[in-house]
Amino acid sequence: MNKKTVIANFKMNKTNAEVKEYIKVFKKLVKGKDANIGICVPFTDLALAAKMLKKTGILVGAQNMNENDKGAYTGEVSSAMLKDIGVYATLIGHSERRSYYNETNATVNKKVAKALAEGIRPIVCIGENLDERNNGKTNAVLKKQLTEGFKDIDVEDFKDVIIAYEPVWAIGTGVVPTNKQIVDAMASIRKTLTGIYNADVAEATIIQYGGSVNEKNAAEIASLKGVDGALVGGAGLDPNKFNAIIDGFLAAK
Ligand code: PGA
What we know:
There is one protein chain. With 253 residues, this protein is an alpha/beta fold. It has 12 helices and 8 strands. Helices cover 45% and strands 14% of the residues. Helix 1 packs parallel to helix 12 and helix 5 crosses helix 7. The chain binds 2-phosphoglycolic acid.
C-alpha cells in the first residue's frame, strides 16, 4: 500500500504572518505522524515555509513553476529559484491554472519534464469538468490528460510524480463525487498508467483525490480503493481541520 499523502493547496491565501502562525500550530499537531504531509503555499510564503519546516519532513511545495531555465518571462518563477530557497515540490496543471491561465496538457508536459529534470517533485492535477462528466467523457479526458501530460517522461523519472485526481466540479463546491465515481476514476487512471508504463508503476504511483475534502468526509474518502491521499483546498487553510483530515487518512485501512 502506498504511503498516505495529504497535501494542502493554499491557493492565493495567507500572508507571511498568517503562514507563520499556521506553521507554528500545524508543526506540533502533525509531529510524528506516519504520512507524507505537505503544504503548497503562495510564492511569497515559500522561503518562510521552507525555513520553518526544514528537517520536519513536511513537504513545502509551490503552486506553479515555469518550464524555462530563465529569461524574459515576466511574472514567472523558475525551478532554480525554488531550489535556491529549499523548495523541492510543486503543483502542476491545477484546474484553476488550466482554466484561468490557459495551461494545456502540452504546457503541463513541459513543466513536468523540467521539474523532474531539476529534482523537483511534481504534483500533477487532472480531472474532468461537469460537462465532460455528464457526457460520459470522464475516462477519455483523464486518459488524454495523462497521455499528453506525461508524453516522453521516462519511467524512472515518473516514479517521483504524484497525481491528484480533482474533478473540476468538486473543487470548492462542497460537492463530492460518489464513492463509485472516485473508485472508478482511480482505476481508470491506473489503467492508463499501466498502458503508458506498466502495472507495477501504476500500482506504486501515489494518486490523491481532491475536491471538497474536509474533516468530516476524509475518513470515508480515505477508505476507497485506490485513493492514496488527498489534495485539500479550503479545509487545508485551518491547521486543525487539516490535521483532522490527515488523521482521517491515517485511520483508513
Ligand atoms: P477544495 O480545493 O478542497 O477547496 O475543493 C481542492 C483543490 O483545488 O486542490
